[in-house]
Amino acid sequence: MIGAVVGAIIIGIIIGALARLILPGRQNISIGLTIIVGIVAALIGSLIADVLGVANTRGIDWTEHLIQLLLAIVGVYAVTRLRGRKE
């Protein structure tokens, strides 16, 4: 259980950063908030992958990571829109 949480944190940091890089334009949210969105996306993505039966495969779980990344992109976009532009 602790290993899964630590893994989600590490993967969450990576996919949160990737989500920001993939989204066009400037996101007006902090790095810390991006990491939190990434961690939440990693946890929810793991649950979805488990339900779909693609969480535990041989080698790297590419489908699970893709689900997590898509959720992180949606999450970063949603948080950016909810916070509004401060220019």
Give a description of the structure.
With 87 residues, the protein is mainly alpha-helical. Helix content is 75%, strand content 0%. The chain is built from 3 helices and no strands. The longest helix has 22 residues, at 31-52. It is elongated, with a radius of gyration of 13 Å. InterPro entries: Transgly_assoc. Its main location: membrane. The chain crosses the membrane at residues 6-23, 30-53, 65-82. It is found in: Cell membrane. It is a multi-pass membrane protein.
Number of strands: 0
Question: What Rg do the Cα atoms give?
Answer: 13 Å
What characteristic shape results from the CA principal axes?
A: elongated
Distance between the termini: 43 Å
Reported for the largest beta sheet, the result is:
none
Element layout with pairings:
Layout: H1 2-22, H2 31-52, H3 62-83
Describe this protein with a few key phrases.
about 90 residues, mainly alpha, 3 helices, elongated, transmembrane helix, cell membrane, transmembrane
In short:
This protein is mostly helical. It is built from 3 helices and no strands.
